[in-house]
Amino acid sequence: MIKKINKLFVYLSLMMGIVVISSNFLVQFPIRYFGLEEILTYGALSYPVTFLITDLSNRAFGKFLARRIVYLGFTIGIFLTLIASTNFNELISIRIAVGSGVAFLIAQNLDINIFDKLRKNKKWYIAPLFSSLLGSFIDTFLFFVISFYKTGVPWVTLAIGDFLIKILIALLMLIPFRLFLKRIKDLSGGNFLYKT
Q1: CATH code assigned at 54
Q2: What is the percentage of the chain residues whose pLDDT exceeds 70?
Q3: pLDDT tens-place string over residues 53-74
Q4: Which domain holds residue 170?
Q5: Would the pTM count as exceeding 0.70?
Q6: Residues with Cβ < 8 Å from 17, sequence gap 6 or more?
Q7: What is the Cα–Cα distance from 194 to 66, expressed in whole angstroms?
Q8: How far is CA 79 from CA 18, 37, 109, 154, in A?
Q9: Is 102 helix (H, G, I), strand (E, B) or coil?
């Protein structure tokens, strides 16, 4: 059982890193359909998955180990972002890497703390929904200000579009959260490692 739990910890950490690097790369590309190029980037579609990973980690392991998964995922994601998609000759690319890192750490830690405070609510969806929404708001604001303020990029409309998509995806992520919640509960023998 300990081996399975360690495997889950590593898996969640790697998934976090993969989602971070994917989102950091995809945020550079606006969606050029239906007039969305000044409202939405592809990164907005992948990034909200980080909150699902954080909330599942928090539910399974508690806030202290969830924080470790965030930091490990952050380290993997930022390292790979610096190698794979950061052009050090372009200030905007460096700002995206810095904005992503700062926004990610602050928003994920906020998500962990809010989830932890709401975890005992009898309605299972309250903790993941509210922690993800508040974390997403802070993440969106910090990322777009740090990355795109005074660059000529229409960052305000992109931030609004990004946040609206994050709200939609936070609602949709409740489905896999509930499904994975059962899997995590089965893995821990019917009892979460950290009591709910």
Answers
A1: 1.10.1760
A2: 86
A3: 899 888 888 888 889 888 887 8
A4: 2-187
A5: yes
A6: 72, 73, 74, 75, 76, 77, 80
A7: 11
A8: 11, 28, 20, 27
A9: helix
